[in-house]
Amino acid sequence: MDYKSITTFIGSEAELDATLPAAMSFTQAQDGHLTTCLLGVDMTPAGGFYMGASPILLQETLERAQGDAEALEALARRRLERETLRWATESAVVQFGGLPGMVGLRARFSDLVIQSRPYGRDALPTQEAVVESALFEGNAAVLIVPETGLGTKFGERIVVAWNQSNEALAAVRRALPLLRAADQVCIAIVNPPPHSPERSDPGGLLTQMLARHGVRAEVSVLAKTLPRVSDVLMRHMSDIDAGLLVMGAYGHSRLREAILGGATRNVLENTEWPVFLAH
Questions:
Q1: Given Cys at both, which of 24, 100, 157, 192 links 202, Cβ 3.0 to 4.6 Å?
Q2: Residue 134 structural domain
Q3: Is the pLDDT of residue 198 over 90?
């Protein structure tokens, strides 16, 4: 499967600047179609409109969100019109609580969703919600773009974070077009458990599967010499000068990762490289 139907959800001008150039260049390289959904999100809490509250207030918040979405769509169209690719835009107005349903419906019919890093100084709450909604409600693969963009080495050397989980295998399968095109693929295994089914040959079955798809991969078994698995992965990315990390998303629950942390959240909070996620 190639990436022919690509979608991005954008909720602010800063997010437009961070996401749209990468989404356009990726779509051009894949000869695909880019759909850009410009969001106007009403952040009023669900209980914010109590019984008897003025309907005028509700109308004002929705009109403000509509204006934000239409202004963003006008900016996006001006940029897209200068490029030679197939594209479409749409503005969408939604209350924050309805964001998962709206994003999930559109993401489920996409081969790939491209979003900017959802954590950082200027990140909006909607960015995290969009990424999680695309992964869970939409069952889509998501490519996270860091502040520096995709970079000139994107896809040349790819690190696959492998822990034998269903999430990691889903990410590998969704990333096969990128893995086939890569110059080098490294399967990184951090502290493999001694009693796992793969204890005698860590990553062996995965390399066999990839080889049948024309992907020549090598396995690196890494010791957990840093406090977090994500730290080990990112150090390995730097050591081999990789341009993309492929990993399963949210092997633990989202609530647990939000409170206690986890590999997915830690990578997204600190990564300097593009990250390909699937759940």
A1: 192
A2: 5-145
A3: no
